[in-house]
Write a structure and sequence with these properties.
Blueprint lengths: L9 E8 L3 E7 L10 E4 L2 E9 L2 E7 H6 L10 E2 L17 E15 L4 E7 L1 H4 L7 E4 L2 E8 L11 E7 L1 H6 L10 E7 L8 E4 L2 E4 L5 H9 L4 E4 L8 E4 L13
Antiparallel strand pairs: 1-2, 1-6, 2-5, 3-4, 4-5, 7-8, 7-12, 8-11, 9-10, 9-12, 10-11, 13-14, 15-16
Length: about 260
């Protein structure tokens, strides 16, 4: 699986437009990579179609171009292949492997002495899967949510926001080092947050995310999916992952 850990910072060296699709050529390490295998580029899972002289190609359909930041790439842009697994082989899916939102934009960037704070819009479609101090994948990079905005008020439709803090290594080795306000990023939530709610404190006000109901949890368990059951916040405030042992497989286990 793709781990959310970036393997390297590559470069887009060619984009061949093909009507309702495109073929990307990206320069980066191709050791252990073969045509037909999967590789993540800025968090988007693609199939390697060819390898030549330190580059690999991947075909991208129109749907992917429309729903991710890959549609805005240009030759010379940075592109980050997903992490390589044991034995030099790419793994098949992102470990964050949860709900994927449409591309979102960087709202602001605040440099500090040794790190940068970046605020990004958070669509309602995946906001329930994002928790304060939890993780989220931004352009395929697994990052910790350092701050979380309040949800839209009742009756209002719109995005919230979240913030991440980027250490120098992340700034140097990933596309987040150059992302500026207004630019598009790809977001992906954590699968193991699907049945889990969370509460966070912001400015002294309790902000609760909605929990799924028991019937939904029972259906998911019966389908072989893990669910997270949490204690009340004023008790131990911890969670347990529950799944049906008879249906448990490596693929259903949240990473």
């Amino acid at each position: 699986m793709f781990t959310g850990i970036v393997a390297e910072l590559g470069e887009v060296v060619g984009i061949e437009q093909r009507g309702d699709a495109a073929r990307l050529t990206i320069r980066g390490s191709t050791d252990g990579v073969s045509p037909g295998e999967s590789i993540a580029v800025n968090g988007v899972c693609l199939t390697v179609t060819g390898i030549l002289d330190g580059t690999f190609t991947a075909d991208v359909m129109g749907e992917t171009l429309d729903r991710s930041s890959l549609g805005a790439l240009a030759p010379g842009a940075a592109g980050q292949p997903g992490a390589i697994g044991p034995h030099g082989r790419p793994l098949g899916r992102p470990s964050d492997a949860g709900p994927r939102g449409r591309d979102r934009t960087v709202i602001s960037r605040s440099p500090a002495e040794h790190w940068d704070q970046v605020r990004i819009s958070l669509p309602a479609s995946i906001s329930r899967y994002v928790v304060h101090k939890g993780s989220i994948a931004v352009d395929g990079i697994s990052l910790t949510v350092s701050a979380l905005g309040p949800p839209p008020e009742d009756g209002h439709v719109g995005d919230s926001w979240f913030e991440v803090c980027l250490i120098p290594e992340t700034l140097k080795r990933t596309t987040m080092g150059a992302r500026q306000p207004g630019e598009v990023v790809n977001l992906e939530g954590r699968r193991d947050r699907e049945v889990c709610g969370a509460a966070s404190e912001r400015e002294g006000k309790q902000v609760n995310q909605v929990f799924d109901d028991v019937d939904r949890a029972i259906k998911d368990i019966a389908a072989g999916q893990p669910v997270v059951v949490v204690d009340d916040a004023d008790r131990e405030n911890e969670g347990d992952i529950i799944l049906a042992a008879s249906l448990a497989t490596p693929s259903c286990w949240p990473s």
